[in-house]
DNA sequence: GTTGAGTCCTGAAAGC
DNA sequence: TGCTTTCAGGACTCAA
């Protein structure tokens, strides 16, 4: 499940292979992969063919490839999306959704997505900042991220903390795994009312979030199965460092109390009932 | 503004 | 063994 560290690992992995490369051909194997490109696969391909990729950028879980046409190829990996650099002669595999050939005879870019929650689209004039993600807030590593503004916005919410952390219009890049890990490090329950949070606690939360992301990025991301791999096909190994996510019944690394799993906003949440008492 | 439910989808795992 | 059901997740929509 790609969250910020996984998406950033993938961005770094594909950058050297696509930057400066001209797109040769585009094949859309599954229409759902471009469902937010309403003009259809022919238009999708027409806008890409002949364009040169000028870089790779990311905001939260979205990444995009600015093009020399001022358009951008925007991508969200959803639950199971992968961007892979492959040799053209490598077998397609059953979940190949989009293939982009480059002016590099030995490599091509493939969008592979088992569960088809991921998508690509061409954003018109989106090279600098695609319109389609203008509602996505900066992530914690974005130079435009304002901790004071985030703290104010969070405390003005009448919601629960975990739900707010997963709201990409408030802060981006956080998914279920890193939300649970950050909450555990901050010793706070996801159901904590946002309007009762102190400034100091939000500051501690953000510091822990940065730490979790930084450590995960250094590990190449979290891989539970083959659904997340880096551009070179290798798995990340941060799952070995997870304290609570997926650890129900196992001892809390801090106090040895068994980790609890419960449904929260239609998602599984994992927490230590001793370290993170219900608010 | 916020919540909760529903939708999309696939494949593994569990249940029968 | 084979079929059916459940589950996992992110983004989005919609009714309340």
Automatic annotation (TrEMBL):
Pfam families: Fapy_DNA_glyco (PF01149), H2TH (PF06831), zf-FPG_IleRS (PF06827)
Ranges where the FPG-type domain occurs: 243-277
Annotated binding of DNA, by residue: 95, 115, 157
Active-site feature positions: 2-3, 61, 267
Domain Formamidopyrimidine-DNA glycosylase catalytic: 2-118
A GO molecular function held by the record: damaged DNA binding
Catalytic activity: 2'-deoxyribonucleotide-(2'-deoxyribose 5'-phosphate)-2'-deoxyribonucleotide-DNA = a 3'-end 2'-deoxyribonucleotide-(2,3-dehydro-2,3-deoxyribose 5'-phosphate)-DNA + a 5'-end 5'-phospho-2'-deoxyribonucleoside-DNA + H(+); Hydrolysis of DNA containing ring-opened 7-methylguanine residues, releasing 2,6-diamino-4-hydroxy-5-(N-methyl)formamidopyrimidine
Entry note: cofactor: Binds 1 zinc ion per subunit.
Assigned keywords, A-Z: DNA damage, DNA repair, DNA-binding, Glycosidase, Hydrolase, Lyase, Metal-binding, Multifunctional enzyme, Zinc, Zinc-finger
Annotated EC: 3.2.2.23, 4.2.99.18
GO annotation (BP), single: base-excision repair
Classification via CDD domains: EcFpg-like_N
Top-level taxonomic group: Bacteria
InterPro entries named in the record: DNA_glyclase_Znf_dom_DNA_BS, FPG_cat, FPG_Glyclase, FPG_N, H2TH_FPG, Ribosomal_uS13-like_H2TH, Znf_DNA_glyclase/AP_lyase, Znf_FPG/IleRS
Cofactor: Zn(2+)
Subunit structure: Monomer.
Primary role: Involved in base excision repair of DNA damaged by oxidation or by mutagenic agents. Acts as DNA glycosylase that recognizes and removes damaged bases. Has a preference for oxidized purines, such as 7,8-dihydro-8-oxoguanine (8-oxoG). Has AP (apurinic/apyrimidinic) lyase activity and introduces nicks in the DNA strand. Cleaves the DNA backbone by beta-delta elimination to generate a single-strand break at the site of the removed base with both 3'- and 5'-phosphates.
HAMAP family the record matches: Fapy_DNA_glycosyl
Family: Belongs to the FPG family.
Listed name of the protein: Formamidopyrimidine-DNA glycosylase
Phylogenetic lineage: Bacteria, Bacillati, Actinomycetota, Actinomycetes, Glycomycetales
Gene: mutM
